[in-house]
Amino acid sequence: MHHADVAQALLRAVRANGVDGEAFNVADDAPVTALELLNLNGEPVSEGAAGRSLDDPWEGIADTSKIRRELGFRPVYPTVYTARDAGAF
Q: What's the rounded Cα separation, in Å, for the pair 41 and 59?
């Protein structure tokens, strides 16, 4: 998640009326793997890391429908790749 989108989400939450005590998930539209992040940052990948299976591939996937519906949140950089392509790394 890009810091510009985190800032947008925080501003929407603090400016909204009637959301005291509510929780909102904020996340990219498309999750990325640790391997993708390593590759995007030019970091080395440990031997065998790419072939390891995940225990639960859905672990850590956040539902952002509430913040979109109730606060009108739309990410400026919906994926790490859109941020990269925009030069926003």
A: 23
How many angstroms separate the CA atoms of 56 and 20, rounded? Answer: 33
Residues listed for the chain: 89
Q: Per residue of the chain (89 residues), give pLDDT as tens.
A: 899 999 999 999 999 999 999 999 999 898 888 788 888 999 998 887 767 776 776 677 889 999 999 999 999 999 999 999 999 98
Tokens, residue 17: 């009326």
Q: Is 44 left (phi over 0), alpha (psi -120 to 50) or beta?
A: beta
- CA 4 to CA 76: how far, in whole Å? 7
Cα 27 to Cα 37: distance, rounded to the nearest angstrom: 15
Tokens of 66: 């509430």
Q: What is the dihedral of CA 70, 29, 85, 3, to 10 degrees?
A: 50
